[in-house]
Design a protein that fits this description.
Chains A, B: One of its GO terms (biological process) is peptide catabolic process. 2 copies of one chain form a homodimer. The first copy, chain A, has 25 helices and 20 strands. Chain A is of the alpha+beta class. Among the domains of chain A are: about 210 residues, no CATH class; about 190 residues, no CATH class. The first copy, chain A, is globular. Chains A and B meet through strand 14, strand 15 and helix 22 of A and strand 14, strand 15 and helix 22 of B.
């Protein structure tokens, strides 16, 4: 123990320390709130500048939140009474691509439907989901689980959820899901209208919608017109229907109205959307593991896999081509992991989370403490096998023939059971995806590279401590690099899985549960799968325990925040959330300040004439003319393009509408800044920003550059 | 002619247009003033915030300006009564390098002389020059030239200048030069005390003095401690002397005092130094040529030479090594040319200069107009052969054997004449340099690459119009690519100049005017040199005409500026100049603002542990301790590092002292920003900035990090 301090701590100092913890733990601008929580934080909302009634935001099946929809992989919003959906260009990219041909390249040229007849049908799997029900089903989900533990707890929750979904989906045109809030504390049944006939109404050219592309991705200042307008259609009966020329525009229960003026620095802003996943309420131990082990380990192993691909493909131009996409993906993942690590270190997140948790635990009663201790034990079990889990995961995702063999053998096993009892991923509805995976091997495989990747991954496996060993793997690959090399050489010299017909013949057998052809890799898979199944069982047992124990941690955290005068939002899980804040500048580095609003001057500055900075001539001409009229910012005296807020977002928030204090649409979320890449774990108000298309830019483009006056009229402009 | 305008131009509009021209032509902050001009612009200086008497600055041989010296290739200043000279780390780099050994690496470790005995002698050719005389000699220089033209005018000016220098340098320890101001309008004899015994007193480690290196070069925000302290010694008689242990510290006539507080945004600042060359007062036609031809042509030819080196060295790792430095230099030159082009386009310099010149010409009398028209004619003659001049220049600078052959043959010709009559560059004092050039060929030559470079350059020559052809070149290389390739193959198959002994034998013959050995490349050089001499004669004839005619242009410009209420500084020519302005932020791009002061936080942010961002541990520790004391900025509450002003600088201003309104030393100039790379032609107040070391950072390093209390005391700190 440290020596007793010479001075007693002054109460005012203690208070200051406490306030510091509070502000670190619950920043005024942090929060992905469930709609139902908004009345609870109404006072904060009003203080931040919201002019409407927070109570009116509580029901996500009523206006204005029922105008916010799930669109493709992101978010969208209705912006007209006739079903116009506004979302990002990158969220609707598949729709634009689907309608493009070499002769009519809508990606490059953009598209304006002259009238409704000219609206182009989206790819048939494109969906817009309108939330029509959000009901608490915690008791139904947990009823049968209570008293159980481990795998049994997991299975009980899983079975109850599936039952609720199946029952709910009896209604046609409705898609249902059960959302797990606060890590197993609460469960909600979500009912969504599944709109299946979407059509392309307006898309800007790529060089506007994706101006800057990868170079500007995650970057601010930004100058991208990342928006597209679709229209939802339904059958004549008003019900969701597949595409048909007879369908009629969907009449949404409400739609957002575009503001006539734009925002300025400091102005209130709020956003609604479907953020995918965050880890903000994970334990201090999980934070420490992420920073001290997971992210550095990911960076290191990605580096080594990149080196292995380089090694395996040296002097082989065709191999380089085949692995180009895997290399790109590894580099991106490495960059993300390194960026997340940098950010968490810069924010001192581990120390702050630990300090906050110590305070919380001191204020937590014995009952929950017991569960929290047990939770720590389960997490420690998982940590004990983390390196093996990382390596086995990569064994599946970073190889082609090895992955195919494991997939085929597992499919053979699962196919012997009734479809409903099969592991998800191996059910009848997954077969097309599996077949696709097996087919694409041809374009992405080279034996020397795959052996180099496996030598790297399994070499690392060989160096694991005994506690993490798997007898099946040791038997198959030996325990020395030489044994491994010999085993790999024999496997890849003997396997015929490199031939597509052989893989597809094995697939035909596997999907019917029949014996697979004789092949060294398939025989190896048959020997390894028992280990895989055993680990899966262990994982589900742990997951069941986590599901059972985390609620105690969440209860303690909610109580702790209440004591500090704050509320707790559930970590993001793909359900509708609202965040609020303001337009705020960014000071990312010493002496550098980025204003929160960009202007068209920046487009001309960035323009090089080369992709991705090849602004179209009509845009450059319009900028040079300077004829901005009503869409110009009165203070800046020019046309704005993008703006920056401190809103709390993550992946899935693409296309989220940004509203002003009066609830009018001022922007469209499309990205966040590089400094915020660690925000999925830790919200640092100094660095967390979200990047939006200014609706005035969209209006100006649609008025002056690629005019669509009929669409503007429909949006009330 | 355009149709008559419907409205007559309103007088107020005409006035506004005129004012716009005025402000464009003479920005308040633009100007590299001669000391003698400062009383003339005294009112501006006072309005800008200068608290002293501008008249006291008029004499550059009196305090404070006689404390500002030429040091190495840059500027320095006396900062103690015992001859301490403060300059940049990069300006004193040769001195540090000269004293470094593998065992005692002063570059990496820095150096602190514990006492005077420990001060380390500089390389013997390092000089510090103290200006002790600055006298107008226009009449002596131009007396014999008047009435002449062309080459005769050039030779008369050249001969008079050489006479003045020779006479002046009869005094021992004095170096003299004749400076041409306003392009031949005025001439000044400059007398400088030549201090030859310099010693290293204090240098920070490379990772401070050159923190960021090439990556941060031209960049702001910056975090570099680019300073070093030397001491000048003289003989016991007080006269300049070569290094000797008996020498004593030089007692300068005055020295600068370091300010106790530091500057803030908006504060007045001024700077004195030796800027090398600017082109601000060139004609509108020269501006247009620079932007429309010279810079694009340079970018294009550098790209093609880079491609040629790539092509010629393909698959040859040794060739890649040999040409690495040439490739780097071509890339740097390409980057500079492209940056200058970008800047001039961004500033709309061509249009603005042309508009300004039109106004000037309209206000100019017939006599000067005649000379200005004649000047335009001479410039047009030069333009007519510009592409050939560019190619022949590169033929000399970008080849090794070809250059050696031309050098040797020319040396042979010149060596037949008395030394004083030889072309400069081929005199006795140049022989060591020529020998060095011939020796280094070995490390920088590959025949395939040289042939590829020549094929590129001479291929471009072959495509020139007939008016630019040279019979000697056509005879040597033919007029088709095939003929060229055949000629090059024969030359390089036959030449022995690739062998150093052969080159040195030829050198021994050439320096004595003897016949050179038989060698195809030397024989080629003998056939080409007559063309080279003819072009040189043409060039000198044009230069004489430019020297005769530009003064009319300058007179017209000075009169035009007087009419606008402004004064004209001469374009930079390596003589002492003063500029004044203030600390000013930079807004280089849309939505980006750089504060004018950086802090140590930025060092920690940039630190990666890898060169060039490998801040030394003692510095990182001191930053973490945060013990900044008296050197901390009171408003920022932390230690500043560098600051940014709008002062007018160019190459040669490295090491210039930056003074506050009271004439106290607040900073040390060491770089400018990338956006200002075009400022040698056009001063754009939006983008022109200069980057300085904050003297508080130097003090803090010398107090807290690498302490040298005795040196601080000597500087009065």
């Amino acid at each position: 123990m440290p020596a007793a301090p010479r001075r007693r701590r002054h109460p005012a100092r203690a208070l200051l320390a406490c306030l510091a913890t509070l502000s670190a733990a619950a920043h005024a601008d942090e929060g992905m709130w469930m709609a139902a929580q908004l009345p609870q934080i109404g006072e904060q909302l009003r203080q931040a500048g919201y002019a409407g009634d927070p109570a009116a935001l509580a029901d996500l099946t009523a206006a204005p939140l029922n105008a916010v929809v799930r669109a493709g992989g992101g978010t969208g919003a209705f912006v007209s009474a006739d079903g116009l959906v506004l979302t990002n260009h990158h969220v609707a990219y598949g729709v634009i691509q689907y309608n493009s041909t070499p002769q009519r390249n809508l990606i490059d040229d953009g598209y304006i439907a002259a009238d409704r007849a000219a609206e182009l049908p989206a790819n048939p799997d494109y969906r817009v989901l309108v939330t029509v029900g959000f009901d608490r089903v915690t008791d139904q989900v947990l009823g049968a689980a209570r008293g159980k533990s481990g795998r049994a707890y997991f299975d009980a929750v899983d079975a109850a959820s599936k039952r609720i979904v199946a029952e709910c989906e009896r209604e046609t045109g409705i898609r249902c899901s059960v959302a797990n809030m606060y890590y197993g504390t609460d469960f909600y049944r979500i009912r969504q209208l599944e709109l299946r006939d979407l059509r392309l109404v307006y898309a800007p050219p790529r060089a506007i919608g994706n101006f800057g592309d990868e170079t500007d991705n995650f970057m601010w200042p930004r100058h991208t017109g990342d928006f597209t307008l679709l229209r939802a259609y339904v059958g004549r009966d008003g019900k969701p229907a597949a595409h048909s020329p007879d369908n009629v525009p969907y009449q949404p229960p409400s739609h957002l109205r575009i503001a006539h003026d734009g925002p300025r620095e400091g102005d209130f802003a709020m956003l609604a959307g479907y953020p995918g996943i965050t880890y903000r309420h994970r334990t201090a131990a999980e934070f420490a593991e992420q920073v001290e082990w997971t992210l550095p380990a990911r960076v290191a192993v990605f580096d080594q896999l990149l080196a292995a691909i380089e090694r395996g493909g040296a002097g082989n131009a065709e191999a380089a081509t085949r692995y180009a996409s895997q290399v790109q993906s590894l580099k991106n993942n490495r960059k993300r992991a390194a960026g997340e690590l940098d950010g968490l270190l810069r924010s001192d997140a581990v120390r702050q989370r630990a300090q906050d948790e110590r305070g919380m635990l001191a204020a937590t009663g014995r009952g929950d403490r017991r569960d929290i201790d047990a939770l720590a034990g389960v997490l420690a079990q998982a940590s004990a096998v983390r390196e093996r889990e990382l390596l086995l995961g990569l064994l599946g995702s970073q190889t082609q023939l090895m992955r195919s063999a494991l997939l085929l053998e597992r499919l053979r096993l699962e196919s012997a059971r009734p479809d409903a009892e099969r592991e998800s991923g191996y059910q009848a509805r997954d077969l097309a995806l599996i077949e696709g995976t097996l087919k694409q091997v041809q374009r992405r495989y080279d034996p020397a590279v795959e052996k180099a990747l496996l030598a790297e991954l399994l070499g690392r496996y060989q160096r694991l401590p005994d506690a993490q060993r798997l007898p099946e793997f040791d038997a198959a690959f030996g325990r020395t690099p030489d044994a491994l090399a010999t085993a790999l050489d024999a496997l890849y010299a003997g396997t015929a899985l490199g031939d597509e017909p052989v893989r597809l013949a094995a697939f035909a057998a596997a999907r019917e549960g029949r014996a697979l052809p004789a092949d060294p890799l398939l025989e190896l898979a048959a020997r390894l799968i028992p280990a895989q199944l055993r680990l899966e069982q262990e994982r589900k047992t742990r997951d069941g325990e986590l599901l059972r124990l985390r609620p105690a941690y969440m209860r303690a955290l909610v109580a702790w925040r209440e004591q500090q005068g704050g509320a707790v939002y559930p970590d993001a899980n793909g359900t509708l959330r609202v965040s609020y804040g303001r337009l705020e500048r960014l000071q990312p580095r010493d002496a550098v300040t980025y204003a929160p609003v960009t202007t068209v001057a920046g487009i001309a500055e960035k323009h090089t004439g080369q992709v991705p900075f090849d602004a179209p001539q009509p845009l450059l001409d319009a900028i040079a003319r300077g004829d901005f009229g009503a869409t110009a910012d009165p203070a800046l005296g020019t046309q704005t393009v993008n703006f920056l807020t401190n809103l709390d977002t993550t992946g899935g928030n693409s296309g989220s509408p940004v509203l002003n204090a009066r609830g009018e649409l001022i922007g469209l979320n499309f990205d966040s800044n590089w400094e915020a890449v660690s925000a999925s774990w830790w919200f640092d108000p100094r660095y967390k920003r979200a990047i939006h298309v200014d609706m005035r830019y969209m209006r100006w483009l649609m008025e002056q550059v690629y005019p669509a006056p009929h669409v503007l009229r429909e949006m009330g402009l």
